[in-house]
Design brief:
By secondary structure, the protein is α/β, with parallel strands linked by helices. The protein has twelve helices and six strands. Strand 2 and strand 3 form a beta hairpin.
Length: 318
């Protein structure tokens, strides 16, 4: 339910008056398609952001040496031509408008799956490149008043794109179905993510500091959101209790209920906020809308608390 949750939180935030940027990290590009984009250039995806970052970091690292000839790493003009051409893009070129006037997106496409292979090649070309900080550095270039909330939709695996999302995020919001296999995969994923981030913190500490990245990575909050929940299903209730036994108060109080409206949101790539209630019973639509509204209200409070804490830390640092 990652894409469905990201889509609905983005739509709810937009209806609430917030300016939203979505970043689609998933090569399946379902979030991109749901936002009305079908023709996307590979160079305008996260892959393009990573190519651009490699060029910029290559030049920065080269310039940090008193004598450039002493630098053991390539400069940007020594990188492959396709990387250089993508690296010449301006940061706003990656952002595309959507069918929602207050939602923009950095889209994805099927060919963006190549980023996992390309990133490994780029790391081999430039071993001092902090590959996990590309998106964080990119977002730092955006004007502070351009967006209020940025929402990531990630692929279901640990890779270069999902690690970039993790290192750029302030809050980790993890959707999970209320079944045994979902419980097993969610806990396994969190363990693998923790191990990967710990390895990066240990192996890239000095390089990250030079690149302006603080390690180890600290999240303002981590929450687990139950999706496709059926309140009259004893197994679902038991699995939520199992999640709470492990994660305690980090499990969201308001799950996303399974209704026909939720099923149709995936089938037609339209959120509950876009669907016409006349396509189903009004009660079914109302129940789904209330479920997402409650989940969004809880999400918004989590975001606002993180904003306050981040503001306090900045004031203290200054």
């Amino acid at each position: 339910g990652k894409t469905v949750v990201a889509q609905h939180l983005a739509h709810a935030a937009a209806l609430d008056g917030y300016r939203v940027l979505c970043v689609d990290f998933d090569p399946q590009a379902t979030l991109t398609h749901s936002m009305g984009l079908t023709e996307v250039k590979e160079s305008h995806t996260v892959w393009g952001i990573m190519c651009r970052d490699l060029c910029r970091e290559s030049n920065r690292i080269m310039e940090s040496y008193d004598d450039p000839d002493d630098c053991p790493y390539p400069a940007a003009d020594e990188l492959p031509e396709d990387v250089q051409s993508i690296g010449a893009q301006r940061f706003q070129e990656f952002i595309q408008p959507t069918c929602w006037p207050t939602i923009d997106i950095i889209p994805s496409c099927a060919n963006a799956a190549f980023v996992e292979f390309a990133s490994a090649q780029y790391r081999a070309l430039h071993k001092a490149w902090s590959f996990f900080g590309c998106v964080a550095r990119y977002l730092d270039e955006l004007p502070d008043d351009q967006y209020d909330i940025i929402i990531f939709d990630c692929p279901p695996a640990i890779g270069y794109q999902s690690l970039n999302a993790a290192f750029a995020a302030d809050i980790l919001y993890i959707p999970s179905g209320p079944g045994y296999w979902e419980y097993d995969s969610t806990t396994s994923y969190l363990g693998q993510l923790g191990d990967a981030m710990a390895d990066i913190s240990e192996g890239f500490a000095s390089l990250a500091a030079d690149a302006g990245i603080t390690l180890p990575k600290q999240f303002s909050d981590i929450r687990l959101l139950m999706t496709r929940f059926e309140s009259n299903n004893p197994l679902h209730s038991a699995m939520i209790d199992a999640f709470k036994n492990v994660f305690g108060a980090d499990v969201c109080a308001h799950p996303i209920e399974m209704t026909r409206a939720v099923e149709q949101s995936g089938r037609f790539q339209m959120s509950v906020y876009e669907q016409d209630y006349r396509q189903m019973t009004r009660e079914t639509w109302k129940r789904a809308r209330q479920s997402f509204d409650r989940a969004y209200d809880e999400f918004l409070q989590t975001v606002l608390e993180a904003w306050k804490e981040n503001g306090k830390r900045k004031e203290k640092a200054e």
